[in-house]
Design goal:
disordered N terminus; 8% strand; Phenylalanine Hydroxylase; two-stranded parallel ribbon; 4-stranded mixed sheet; alpha/beta; binds fe (ii) ion
Amino acid sequence: MVTLDRHILTTEPAAMANFEVADEELPDFVDMPFEDIEELPLDHPGARDEEYRTRRDHIASLSKNFRQTGVITDVDYTDEEQSVWRYVAGELQELHEKRASPFYLQAKKSLGISNDRIPQLSEMTKRLKETTGFRLAPIEGLVDTRAFLSWLSWRTMLSTQYIRHHSRPGYTPEPDIVHEAMGHIPMFTNKDFADFSQFIGHGARIANDEQLEGLGRLYWFTVEFGLVEADGEPKAFGAGLLSSFKELENAFSDDVERRSFVLEEVIAHDYTYSDMQPVLYVAPSYKFLKEETRRYIESFGKN
Ligand SMILES: [Fe+2]
């Protein structure tokens, strides 16, 4: 195990193309800097619900256990939490079939993600490891961009386990299990997408601050809000789209300009977190994203 500290985070990875990261190569999770983990935001619908806060904090504490033991603890989700999942999954179902990328739809099935119950990270990480060697590591909130993205270079995605507040099942200001499992996780079963994500991770470890900003934008317009061409039309693969009925509907409306993906344009395109996205980018394929990102990361340090 190596120690993950500021030094490691900015140290060049040994090999860009090490697509099979062994457990022994992973940094020690216990050394993950977690002073930057964001607390529940004040505008969160559950911010004033004591019972919700206590429950969220309990589930979040399981990720601290994980960092000590390396073992993911399954969450015994309550009926209320399960019904939030069922509501959102049911609401998204039809729109997914129409708008989600074919790969995503198939991956969701093969990971066993159903509308009926909240999937456990332990089950999904096992399947991911078998298919593309990706892993999930529980985390209790948002961490800073460099730390979050850097973990991707070890083919690891940090993932929350708690669920949004029941009063607004269609909305969350922070990542939750709906966003992770309904949005992000299925895509890591795609080899090209997994390698592309890993390249972003490599980039985050060697980027200067300006380059890191570019990487953040690349991540935003792909992993979060990306569209990909499939069967001659744009389809959604970004988690921010796939986990939100409103965002997904908006993405295909006349309010949104859907442009062809050009890396140089994407990394220069500023965005805001809060508004609906007015511009989205359509990539020709995941392989294209992987190769463009490889080229981009290899240019780091050369200028
Ligand atoms: Fe996300």
